């Protein structure tokens, strides 16, 4: 009997969004989003601390670096976090398989989030996933070292994500008061991520007046650099304008504005009482703040529970695009400045060359010093008679030749008396024979030592080979220590290769599993029945 299995295409055609929490801050953000029961999103938590990972509410967990950290954390060292992420890159790829969009949330300044978030983002980019980073920066009271690590982590993460949203924790003091608890303050920061993800998912999942698909979201957020997310909600007569102004004036985000934004995604959510005039008013408030040539995509969803109120969600991307293009040529010009100074330096060296020729001339010989200026005066006189302009090097070569002739003449007159007593400077034949014998004897000693030194070289080569084999085994085990120096950032090519290999392996496994399900009778013919079972059957 043949079995015809049909795959359910409805789930595959639906956009899949994954929120990947990295480190302690990322895990807490995921827990807060799970509490708010956000639909249409899959949550994954990755951490080097096994104890913190066990307290996560997410069912999908990744224990990073079990051999590097042994589940004890990264110790606020980004290099350890990067090694841990590279060790478990296969598990990370397995959780990212099939995703269309990935939000990577982490706290910059520590060890796991700062070091592992760029590795995970790079793996997602290699798989063709739209990657959005939402990170926090430490408080000022945490010190300059942690802030410096956070800046380095943000810089490295921005290179491997499509869009990056930065939330400084110091901005929490703008909303917090004396009675605000520590947990409530961090919940405010996590709410930025929650509202941004909710605004994107509502556009694609919830039915509305103006529906948007995932391609529209990718067009706005693909390779756009820094971005901002904001949500505003208001009620009353002027609810559209108030909600739009609150959305673009988020006090928690970094010091950025909508001026010059290249892509804007607007989601206006309201009840069935929302009018066309209100939608137009809210969209125009945001349109006036961004660039005139910006790619603006407006969507509207309906929520029966929001009768009498209006919510506006804004995702603005490419905010630093114009500033980045203006700042790129600046270091190039400063780097090119020393190159413009090279020709004068070369000419100065060429002009100083005749002085180097004058150094061997003995200072006692006045004729050599006097004759040199005369040749320089005679050379232009002879050249002025020609109609053609002389080459630049010819005037400099003539003084050198004249000085050399004068030195040779003076040297010949000075060395003339040497032949009379030349035997004093030449070695005797007996001395030459002794030197030859000594050289031959030294050669024999070296030849005798070579067989003994050769095993040492071979042993050293074998030792180097074994050390290379050991390093290869360590890389296979997941340590990947480069040169024993503990480099903080692994090679980008190695991560890309491992990601591609893992994706290919998973694709082959899925094909094999499907073939086995489609034709289960193929494996029945190859099953061997033990002898004692055949006897019992008889």
Automatic annotation (TrEMBL):
Residues in coiled coil: none
Cellular location(s): Cytoplasm
Gene3D superfamilies: Tubulin/FtsZ, C-terminal domain, Tubulin/FtsZ, GTPase domain
Keywords per UniProt: Cell cycle, Cell division, Cytoplasm, GTP-binding, Nucleotide-binding, Septation
Record region (Disordered): 56-79, 325-497, 511-538
GO biological process, one term: FtsZ-dependent cytokinesis
GO molecular function: GTP binding; GTPase activity
Binding site for GTP: 24-28, 111-113, 142, 146, 190
GO cellular component: cell division site; cytoplasm
Residue intervals of the Tubulin/FtsZ GTPase domain: 16-208
Pfam families, per database record: FtsZ_C (PF12327), Tubulin (PF00091)
Domain Tubulin/FtsZ 2-layer sandwich: 210-328
Main location: cytoplasm
Biased composition (Low complexity): 366-387, 448-457
UniProt biased composition (Basic and acidic residues): 425-447
InterPro entries, sorted: Cell_div_FtsZ, Cell_div_FtsZ_CS, FtsZ/CetZ, FtsZ_C, Tub_FtsZ_C, Tubulin/FtsZ-like_C, Tubulin/FtsZ_2-layer-sand-dom, Tubulin/FtsZ_GTPase_sf
The keyword GTP-binding is assigned to this record: yes
Similarity-based family: Belongs to the FtsZ family.
Subunit note: Homodimer. Polymerizes to form a dynamic ring structure in a strictly GTP-dependent manner. Interacts directly with several other division proteins.
Protein name per the record: Cell division protein FtsZ
Species this protein is from: Paracoccus saliphilus
Organism ancestry: Bacteria, Pseudomonadati, Pseudomonadota, Alphaproteobacteria, Rhodobacterales
Gene: ftsZ
């Amino acid at each position: 009997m043949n079995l015809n299995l049909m795959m359910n295409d409805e789930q595959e055609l639906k956009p899949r969004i994954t929120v990947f929490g990295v480190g302690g801050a990322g895990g807490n953000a995921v827990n807060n989003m799970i509490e708010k029961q956000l639909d249409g999103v899959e949550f994954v938590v990755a951490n080097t601390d096994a104890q913190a990972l066990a307290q996560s509410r997410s069912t999908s967990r990744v224990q990073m670096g079990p051999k590097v950290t042994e589940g004890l954390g990264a110790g606020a060292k980004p290099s350890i976090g990067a090694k841990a992420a590279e060790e478990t890159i296969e598990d990370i790829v397995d959780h990212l398989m099939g995703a269309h969009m990935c939000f990577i949330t982490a706290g910059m300044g520590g060890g796991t989030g700062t070091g592992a978030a760029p590795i995970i983002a790079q793996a997602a980019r290699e798989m063709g996933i739209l990657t959005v980073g939402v990170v926090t920066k430490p408080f000022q009271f945490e010190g300059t070292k942690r802030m410096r690590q956070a800046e380095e982590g943000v810089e490295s993460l921005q290179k491997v994500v499509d869009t990056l949203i930065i939330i400084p924790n110091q901005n929490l003091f703008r909303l917090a008061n004396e009675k605000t608890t520590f947990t409530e303050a961090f919940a405010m920061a996590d709410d930025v991520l929650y509202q941004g993800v909710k605004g994107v998912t509502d556009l694609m999942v919830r039915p509305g007046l103006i529906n948007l698909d995932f391609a529209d979201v990718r067009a706005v957020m693909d390779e756009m650099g820094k971005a901002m997310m904001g949500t505003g909600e208001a009620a009353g007569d002027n609810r559209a304008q108030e909600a739009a102004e609150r959305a673009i004036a988020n006090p928690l985000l970094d010091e950025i504005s909508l001026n010059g934004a290249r892509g804007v995604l607007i989601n206006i959510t309201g009840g069935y009482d929302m009018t066309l005039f209100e939608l137009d008013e809210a969209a125009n408030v945001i349109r006036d703040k961004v660039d005139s040539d910006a790619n603006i995509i407006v969507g509207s969803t309906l929520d029966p529970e929001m009768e009498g109120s209006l919510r506006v969600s804004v995702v603005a991307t490419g905010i630093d695009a114009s500033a980045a293009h203006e700042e790129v040529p600046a270091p190039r010009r400063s780097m090119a400045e020393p190159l413009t100074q090279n020709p004068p330096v070369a000419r100065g060296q060429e002009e100083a060359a005749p002085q180097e020729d004058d150094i061997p001339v003995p200072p006692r010989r006045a004729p050599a010093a006097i004759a040199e200026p005369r040749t320089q005066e005679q050379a232009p006189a002879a050249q002025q008679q020609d109609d053609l302009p002389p080459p630049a090097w010819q005037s400099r070569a003539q003084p050198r030749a004249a000085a050399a002739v004068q030195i040779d003449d003076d040297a010949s007159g000075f060395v003339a008396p040497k032949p009379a007593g030349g035997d004093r400077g030449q070695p005797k034949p007996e001395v030459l024979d002794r030197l030859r014998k000594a050289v031959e004897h030294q050669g024999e000693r070296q030849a005798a030592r070579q067989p003994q030194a050769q095993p040492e070289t071979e042993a050293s080569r074998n030792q180097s080979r074994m050390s290379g084999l050991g390093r290869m085994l360590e890389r296979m085990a997941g340590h990947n220590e480069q040169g024993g120096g503990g480099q903080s950032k692994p090679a980008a090519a190695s991560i890309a290769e491992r990601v591609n290999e893992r994706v290919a392996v998973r694709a082959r496994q899925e094909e094999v599993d499907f073939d086995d399900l489609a034709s289960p009778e193929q494996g029945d013919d190859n099953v061997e029945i033990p002898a004692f079972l055949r006897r019992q059957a008889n």
